[in-house]
């Protein structure tokens, strides 16, 4: 007869085995390759205390909820260049959730754009607008996922008063007048978004807040701001910045694996992760919690004008990367190392949208041959060299990037409807038809 202790021990072993039925030597190998797993675990979107934030704009649920609506609300798109553009665009026009909070195409178009498609891939220039009148970005917009971990935003890191911009005060407002806002020390996202709302032709007022039903939300989010200043680009920026700081991809398989679910990733994804963290040393650049970093590298990729980008050219200062902000020769053609979550939701890739798929990106790194002849060899990052991956390793790494780092539930960050009742993220006739929104 078995003793109670024996039965209990067997039961505990069975429970442990069921929970860890996916555990294999590869899990141990990956754990060793990563080292300290805690450094890569992202905070939950409601864990405000552990989400990086600006001292000038502490996170509150009221700000986050307001920002969640303002991010997608076309009602404040009122500084349009042509009448057809009024109330047709929002932040979400260029940061589409189902495309990983990036455009569904190579270039984001807000005012002057028309159409949506399924994931933003069918947004094109409205024929009413001349090319020089549209609001289009000269580099492929970065995702706002996990952006709380970015201390200096934009491809060139131009916004933010600290981090890599400490000591660059003499550059603020010089080549990009908008970066003069760094002198206010508001936080990189807060400052960038104040300028961004202006650049992207969105504006706010008490009258509009009342008209579209947002006044009470502004009041709740900013009770200490004088009423005369409460309904403005600054408070809207603070709300939007609070919201996007909470966009953490905690449901990605890799995140679940880090937190103890050995079955969260497939064997192939685990092999790809080992390549990433060990053999290829990708984490030499992608070393922060969001698998990006506040560092800059020249990879010799082509620029957006070379794939048909609108309102940009070979002389666009944005092609210079960090150097376009600092004017320093050592910074020329170097771009911020981006976060890697949900990249598989939508190509193309790199600042110039020169690669259509993640596998093309992996093969570019594997070949180690720069494609942009304008970038001097002396500026190229030493990592850009032949990596000699096998075909299987290329497939494994691509699978890790595409699926292992993909949070499948970004829809939790999307509101059900706008208080204005308008279609979102776009409200032009073509977009409304594409989205089935009346």
What does this entry show, briefly?
By secondary structure, this protein is mainly α. Helices cover 30% and strands 3% of the residues.
Structural features, described:
The protein is mostly helical. The chain has 2 domains: 25-44 and 250-404, Cytochrome Bc1 Complex, Chain D, domain 2 (Orthogonal Bundle); 48-248 and 410-435, Cytochrome Bc1 Complex, Chain D, domain 2, CATH 1.10.760. The protein contains 13 helices and 4 strands. The strands form 2 sheets. Strands 1-2 form a two-stranded antiparallel sheet. Helix 4 crosses helix 7 (233-245).
Assigned CATH architecture of the largest domain: Orthogonal Bundle
Number of helices: 13
What CATH calls the topology of the largest domain is Cytochrome Bc1 Complex, Chain D, domain 2
Name of the CATH class of the largest domain: Mainly Alpha
Beta percentage is under 5%
Uncertain runs: 4-19
Separation of the first and last Cα atoms: 72 Å
Domains, number = 2
In total, the number of strands is: 4
Read across the widest sheet, the strand sequence of neighbours is: 1-2
Chain-averaged pLDDT: 95
Report the major sheet.
2 strands, antiparallel
Shape: globular
Structural class: mainly alpha
The Rg value, from CA coordinates, equals: 23 Å
- According to CATH, the homologous superfamily of the largest domain is Cytochrome c-like domain
